[in-house]
Amino acid sequence: MTSTSQASLAAALQVRHLRKSYGAKTIVDDLSFAIRPGECYGLLGPNGAGKTTTLRSILGLTPIDGGEVLVLGLPVPAQAQAARARVGVVPQLDNLDPDFTVEENLLVFGRYFGMRDEAIRARIPGLLEFAALTAKRGDRINTLSGGMKRRLTLARALVNDPDLIVLDEPTTGLDPQARHLVWERLRALLAQGKTILLTTHFMDEAERLCGRVGVIDHGRMVAEGPPHDLIAQHLEPYVVEVYGDGAQDWLAGAKAGLAARVEISGETVFCHTAEPAPVVQTLHGRAGLRYLQRPANLEDLFLRLTGRDMREET
Amino acid sequence: MSATAVSTRAWPLPSGRVWAILRRHFLVWRKTAATTVLGDVLDPMVVLLALGYGLGKLLPAIEGVPYITFLAAGSICMGALYGASFEATYGAFSRLQVQRTWEGMLNTPLTLDDVLWSEVLWATAKAVKSGVAILLVVILFDIARTPTLAWIPLVLLLVGFTFSSLAIIITAWARGYDFFMYYFTLGVTPMVFLSGVFFPVSQLPAVLVAVIGWFPMAPAIQLIRPLVLGQMPADAGWLLLQLAVTAALAMWLAAVVLRRRLLR
Question: Which residues of A have a CB under 8 Å from any CB of B?
Fold first, then answer.
């Protein structure tokens, strides 16, 4: 209890019993979490779980039906403008100004924060360097690659030197090289002491970056904690994935003897176990089977907690 | 506890940060001015010169002045209407939906009221620019030269604001560009043809005149035509009030619809 109240005193973001519905449909249902200064917190959940609505509530862009949101100590939506002045936002879809150059995008955006031109111009070289876009400073937006646009969007979110950075699926649609570069930049921000809140579908992203994650489903928090603690808490330490034409036959024959919890998803058999070696032994020499032995990860946890059924966009 | 910073039904109030958005629009305009000038200035200018000189030769004096002088006021208002309407529909909608510019702005201390005001003020600027451009043609071709012309830019400020606030309601409702065809066909075109741009409204059935009189083009022309002819408009106070009330109602309606769309 003591640690919770201490955390809430100095919290960079505090969400308490947040509720939001559209008509009869409850989107966020009594959601509570807090982020410490300097922490990277990941909000995970399937489509329609309430992630985006939660972010909109934090930015004061939607009236909330109940609960409390404190952003850097400021109550939202009551003081949403003052809160947004100290927050940087990277939206899910790029909304850079296509008519402007890289540099102009930063300048114009800085003005929205009431910054003077000289103050913005003084920050631009550092922001361009951070985004590795110094050489592109005079280029139009439509000449940039997807990764460059994302990095510019990230740099733009830093123009007001925010204390809290909110990223909504920051690497969706990027190729692996571009994703790694964005992750590296985000880690650099954490090293500077910035606080980060991100939503993501990519479990490797959350595992790499986040000190803690909150898994939400149907607007409720279903699990929260450091990724590896959560995995240890909810899952067996290893997974053997078996797939290929003979997978079902193999399972029918070996199931009784397996010391594992078995899940089937599509054409893949997932064996969750503390002892992978005996499972793997039954697989040796079977033609048409492929298998992979690995430690349990956040994706397994996510699927365990939110189910394997598909969620369509709502 | 439903805590909201702004009531969803309040009249929209802008802040000083509107200026930052207007500077953005101006910077874009500077880069694309050449193409946008075509539609909203050249169009009414061609109408004025072609119909004024061409058709004017065949027509007797209307209300005691040559046809082109009569048409001048209408052309100025038409320029303002097109300048405002294109910017506040197609232009604003691109920023709202296609480029997601508004979304970016709303993630900063800017409010939706700021964004709405900046769109309407920017469209007003485009309206004044188009109207003044035609006014300059009127002076340059000696269609009219009188001291009362100096009032026209001031009147255009309110006229343009009213046209813009009306058009932004349509944008608030629009889900695609196609929707604007309705506004131009059912709103802009009737305003142009039935408010006294091309001929005195006394030629029209009284019922039609009464209906079209509620639209802002009618008071705009009743204000600007006397100014072109060297007279101060009769009932100027009432006409200005009609424009101001129309604009105030339109701003309110646009704000309510936009809040329901974006801040839900």
Answer: 22, 59-66, 75, 77-82, 84-85, 87, 89, 91, 93-100, 104, 108-109, 111-114, 160
Joined together, the tokens standing for residue B191 give 């305003």
Stated pTM of the model: 0.91
DSSP state of B150: G
Answer whether residue A134 is part of any domain. Answer: no
Are the CB atoms for A15 and A60 separated by under 8 Å?
Answer: no
In a domain, A273, yes or no: yes
Set of chain B residues whose Cβ sits within 8 Å of the Cβ of A97? 24, 28, 99, 101, 104
8 Å CB contact of A97 and B24: yes
Residue A126: name the closest of A141, A110, A143, A139 by CA: A110
Q: Domains in chain A: how many in total?
A: 1
Measured CA to CA, the distance from residue B222 to residue B205 in angstroms comes to: 18
- In angstroms, what separates the C-alpha of B158 from chain A's closest C-alpha? 27
Of B212, B126, B117, the closest CA to residue B165 belongs to: B117
Residue-wise pLDDT for B164-218, tens only, equals 999 999 999 999 999 999 999 999 999 999 999 999 999 999 999 999 999 999 9
Chain B residues closer than 8 Å to A15 by CB = none
Q: Could you report the predicted ipTM of this complex, rounded to two decimals?
A: 0.91
pLDDT at A308: 66
Does residue A54 lie in a domain region?
A: no
Q: Which helix (DSSP H) or strand (DSSP E) does residue A179 occupy?
A: helix A176-191
Residue A162 domain flag: no
Region class of A110: left (phi > 0), else alpha (psi between -120 and 50), else beta: alpha
Residues B36-70 as b/e (b if ≥16 CB within 10 A, e otherwise) read beeebbebbbebbbebbeeebeeeeebeebbbbbb
CB atoms within 10 A of CB B211: 14
Specify the CATH number for the domain of residue A250: 3.30.70.860
Written as six digits, the tokens of B104 are: 């970016």
- Residues A150 and A94 sit within 8 Å (Cβ to Cβ): yes
CA of A56, closest CA in chain B: separation in Å?
9
pLDDT per residue over A15-60, tens digit each? 999 999 998 999 999 999 999 999 999 999 888 889 999 999 999 9
| Residues in Cβ contact with A257 at an 8 Å cutoff, skipping those fewer than 6 apart | A282
Give B4's contacts in chain A (Cβ within 8 Å): 63, 77
| Structural domain boundaries, residue A249 | 236-295
Residue in B32, B101, B111 closest to A81 by CB: B111
